[in-house]
Design a protein that fits this description.
By secondary structure, this protein is mainly alpha-helical. The protein has helices at residues 19-29, 41-57, 61-86, 88-95, 100-120, 126-144, 150-164, 167-178, 186-189, 191-196, 210-231, 239-244, 248-261, 270-284, 305-309, 314-338, 341-352, 357-381, 388-406, 413-440, 444-470, 478-494. The protein has one domain: MFS general substrate transporter like domains (Growth Hormone, Chain: A). The protein has 22 helices and no strands. It is globular.
Length: 507
């Protein structure tokens, strides 16, 4: 996809600033998020230079293509967990089991995937994880349509979850690694793909084959999306990941290839990167030469170093802990409600005389479409002064919980659908901001691990939701009250986050 670009920069050296001047420039126009001492100083110095280089390249066609293919991960993360609710009733009719067990199976897979791929992409890099996760989802999603028993279906969906669970932790890290700091808000807008994932097509129910047709269709769509991602787009390895390994030449080569692909020029050189690391090492008393100073793991084995880095200072430890708590709370509340939303709509509709599969699926499509404008509003709101990421997350969480409470007042199916439209609109904003602020407040060298920890929290509590559902009456308003209160509480926690990424470049 990208032409070879020579790293010989002798002709441009005369035009470049000194490293000290460059650092002053970076600090002035592209101030990063973290205070001194919270991030490895050698990595921070190199990351600032890489930020300036990517900002110099600007938002070009490489980043816009990445916006599309990374969005496939949002789509998968939305459509597949939601699927257990969409197919719940017909699958129960065929296999005769307790409904929450289906949700439990896929949530266990999502949990494993979040841990494995989230932490793993900081060890072996982003490219393999980015390409494999979607392929796993497509293959096992397609295979699950041929299940001849509940055990087979649950097992296949659990393995599917392992792939889906890694999509957002990896894809958000990848996107931030290549997008200029001035366009980081687009990570919030990526939630538009999440909305599209909640609008799967309806299937005619003939001899209870509708749910199988739906699985075949969505599995096939996922494989097509993977094929487009793998064959039509060549993902470069993250330059920050490479710089963390001490592979300065490769990091600069990646930046130069992206610049050439975008039809731009970039003044960054290998010598700049090495010199920045050297100066930082000398200032902090590090003994290693910059070329050998490896911040990230150099082997394909798990290490707790990436976890320790997220708790290095008191402020960073507080930030990581609050984010994990927010993700866990929202994971429990949203999974408890969303996983059984089609069932709830159908059971409430039965009292109103309109519990058909058509009405249930129609309502789901309406709810999906409602979320699309929410993604654009979220992208605008997070860039507003005073409000920023934290304020937008707090406000949208409070309104999401309020609309959940309001659903209990519905006296007809249209009213219930109307309240759920409000819930969907604001929850899409809430998730859009949460998906963005989490990777933004993690340094790139530990971003996969941080994303993995927060995703693990939401998946773990997502596992608890169907367990609770096994012992709760889902036809009452109790799950709604619990979910609403939890989501409002998470909004209050958002105000306690110590970092506000608005106007600052993530490193």
């Amino acid at each position: 996809m990208s032409p070879d670009v020579s790293l010989d920069s002798s002709s441009s050296q005369e035009k470049k600033r000194s490293i000290d001047e460059q650092n002053v420039y970076i600090t002035k126009v592209n101030d990063d998020l973290f205070e001194e001492g919270s991030v490895d100083p050698v990595y921070q110095a190199k990351a600032r230079l890489l930020n300036a280089a990517i900002q110099e390249i600007g938002m070009g066609k490489y980043q816009w293509y990445l916006f599309i293919v990374a969005g496939f991960g949002w789509f998968a993360d939305s459509v597949w967990p939601l699927l257990s609710g969409l197919i719940l009733s017909p699958v129960i009719n065929e296999f005769n089991f307790q409904g929450p067990f289906l949700s439990l199976a896929i949530n266990v897979g999502l949990f494993v995937g979040a841990v494995f791929w989230g932490l793993g992409c900081d060890i072996w890099g982003r490219r393999w994880s980015f390409n494999i996760t979607l392929l796993i989802a497509g293959i096992f999603g397609l295979a699950s349509g041929g299940s001849n028993s509940f055990i087979t279906l649950a097992s296949l969906l659990a393995v599917l979850g392992v792939g889906v669970g890694g999509n957002l932790p990896v894809d958000s890290a990848v996107f931030l690694d290549f997008v200029p700091g001035s366009h980081q808000y687009l990570l919030t807008v990526l939630s538009i793909w999440w909305s599209l994932g909640t609008t799967p097509g309806t299937c005619a129910r003939s001899d209870n084959m509708g749910w199988r047709y739906l699985l075949f269709t969505l599995g096939g769509i996922t494989i097509v999306l993977w094929g487009f991602r793998f064959f039509a787009f060549k993902l470069e390895e993250s330059p920050r990941y490479l710089a963390g390994l001490g592979h300065d030449e490769e990091a600069v080569a990646v930046v130069q290839r992206i610049a050439a692909y975008n039809g731009r020029t970039c003044s960054l050189t290998v010598e700049d990167l090495r010199q920045a690391g050297q100066i930082a090492a000398e200032k902090t008393g590090l003994q290693e030469k910059p070329k050998k100073h490896t911040i990230m793991s150099s082997s394909s084995s798990y290490s707790i170093d990436h976890v320790k880095a997220l708790f290095k200072t008191r402020r960073m430890a507080w930030s990581t802990s609050v984010l994990i708590a927010i993700w866990g709370i929202i994971g429990l509340a949203s999974t408890l409600y969303n996983n059984f939303l089609p069932f709830l709509l159908a059971s409430r509709g039965a009292k109103f005389g309109d519990s058909s599969y058509y009405i249930t699926y129609r309502n789901q499509v309406i709810l999906g479409v409602i979320g699309v404008p929410g993604a654009f509003l979220a992208g605008w709101a997070v860039e507003q002064p005073v409000i920023g990421r934290r304020g937008t997350l707090a406000i949208s969480s409070g309104l999401t919980g309020a609309f959940l409470f309001a659903t209990t007042t519905a006296r007809n199916s249209n009213a219930l659908l109307g309240w759920n439209c409000g819930y969907t609109f604001f929850s899409n904003i809430m998730y859009g901001v949460l998906y963005a602020i989490s990777p933004e407040v993690f340094p790139a060298k530990d971003r996969g691990t941080g994303n993995g920890l927060t995703a693990t929290a939401t998946r773990l509590f997502g596992i608890l939701a169907p367990i609770i559902a096994l012992f709760a009456n889902l036809e009452t308003a109790v799950p709604v009250y619990v979910s609403g209160a939890l989501i409002i509480g998470s909004g209050c926690l958002a105000l306690l986050l110590p970092y506000e990424p608005r106007g600052k470049a993530t490193i």
